[in-house]
Predict the 3D structure of the following.
Amino acid sequence: MSDEKDSQVTPQTPSEPPVAAEKPDTSEKPAAAVKPAAAEKPAAAEKPAPAAKAAKAPAPPDPRTLEAIKKGEELKAAIEKAVGTGAIIAVESSKEHPMLVIDKTFWVKAVRYLHDDAAYQYRYLRLFSGTDYPDYIEVNAQIYSIEHHATVYVKTRTSRDNASLPSLTEVYQGANWEEREVYDLLGIHFEGHPDLRRIMMWEEWSGYPLRKDYSPFEQTANRGGHA
């Protein structure tokens, strides 16, 4: 019996393999060091407001203009003594030259005086033109004295309705074509002109092209000579 017992082998439970020791987790990175907060920049100092510019002093008057006005006043006194008080409406200047605005009723008398008087002798008509303004039409002439090497501008005005002025052709023959041109383009009738008719447009042309209220569409039947 003892031999049987000895021959029986008691099964042994296999031992479990030893558990390996866990390695520390090295995947986690150490927390980044916190940067200290940047120091706040001091606020920029406010710039002072720019000082107000001093008002610019007006330019002194041109001595040539003053001399022209002085000469114009002398001419006014002489003309009104010769042809009548009120002949000169205003004294102005065009740079260094005097400019006289003459009442239309004295237009020919005043200009003739400047032409004939030995102290002035403005016998050469250099320029003659007209300009349309909202309330009137103005005629401007530049006359020159060869003897005295002097220039003066003379101007006069007429209403836009029934525009009419005395002709200067009896004083300056050279005003003939110039007055015709102003008549043609601005519609001023020059009383006493020897041959007042259109010089650029034909007689059937409607209106006056240099007037500000002129319309090229009025009475188009007369445009270009076509019916």
